[in-house]
């Protein structure tokens, strides 16, 4: 994508300009809130297939996110292969067992109790897709010379948020999973040393008997998440 000869500053008129009235903006903001407040982290899935092109379109949406110096320091690996999903589950559960058997402090384990999580991660093999998010710590020009990426965690986090919103908007449920460490994913998925796995996202349709922890519906009120200074 990047070539040395293309690293110059040029401009073009703002494309895709959106001009809404105040009332239209209120309506749009409210409608989007109504969509996103129905997003839930789901641990119980069916194996109902999800077409590949839907996953690709949602990843394409993630790729529109802003990033430091526009380097777009992310890579998404979408996995539907059953053998690969099984390998990922086995290695993730191994890390999770260490976590629950003492790797995490008592305070952290206590904080997780209302969520009801444990070391068993059935969703990693039942959900039809896993999307693994990688952060690219550096990139390469076409001649193989390295260049530094900037604001990598911030950029990848924004793109991941775009991805979760896109998947939800497409009618799919998700679960974010972050076993620690996750370097096994580089080997399993053939990703280079320049990339750091940051998250596994299970994607699919919720099971008929799917549940969510009651505490998950307890959201902080506006005055606790925002300060408005006019």
TrEMBL record:
Keyword presence, Flavoprotein: yes
Entry-linked CDD domains: iodotyrosine_dehalogenase (cd02144)
SUPFAM superfamilies linked to this entry: FMN-dependent nitroreductase-like
InterPro entries named among the record's database cross-references: Nitroreductase (IPR029479), Nitroreductase-like (IPR000415), Nitroreductase/BluB (IPR050627)
Residues annotated as domain Nitroreductase: 37-205
Pfam families (alphabetical): Nitroreductase (PF00881)
Gene Ontology molecular-function annotations: oxidoreductase activity
Keywords, comma-separated and alphabetical: Flavoprotein, FMN, Oxidoreductase
PANTHER family reported in the protein's UniProt record: IODOTYROSINE DEIODINASE 1, NADPH NITROREDUCTASE
Name of this chain's protein: Nitroreductase family protein
Naturally occurring in which organism (per UniProt): Phaeobacter gallaeciensis
């Amino acid at each position: 994508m990047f070539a040395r000869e293309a690293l110059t500053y040029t401009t073009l008129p703002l494309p895709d300009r959106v001009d809404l009235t105040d009332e239209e903006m209120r309506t749009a903001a409210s409608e989007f809130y109504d969509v996103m407040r129905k997003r839930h982290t789901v641990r119980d899935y069916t194996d109902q297939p999800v077409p590949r092109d839907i996953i690709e379109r949602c990843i394409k949406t993630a790729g529109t996110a802003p990033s430091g110096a526009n380097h777009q320091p992310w890579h998404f690996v979408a996995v539907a292969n059953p053998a690969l999903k099984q390998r990922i589950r086995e290695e993730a559960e191994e890390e999770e067992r260490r976590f629950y058997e003492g790797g995490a402090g008592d305070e952290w384990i206590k904080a997780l109790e209302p969520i009801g999580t444990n070391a068993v991660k059935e969703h990693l093999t039942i959900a039809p897709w896993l999307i693994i998010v990688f952060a690219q710590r550096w990139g390469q020009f076409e001649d193989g010379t390295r260049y530094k990426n900037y604001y990598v965690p911030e950029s990848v986090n924004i793109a991941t948020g775009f991805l979760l919103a896109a998947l939800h908007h497409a009618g799919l449920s998700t679960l974010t999973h972050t076993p620690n460490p996750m370097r096994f994913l580089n080997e399993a998925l053939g990703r280079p040393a320049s990339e750091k796995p940051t998250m596994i996202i299970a994607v699919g349709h919720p099971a008929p008997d799917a549940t969510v922890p009651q505490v998950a519906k307890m959201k902080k009120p506006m005055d606790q998440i925002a300060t408005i200074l006019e």
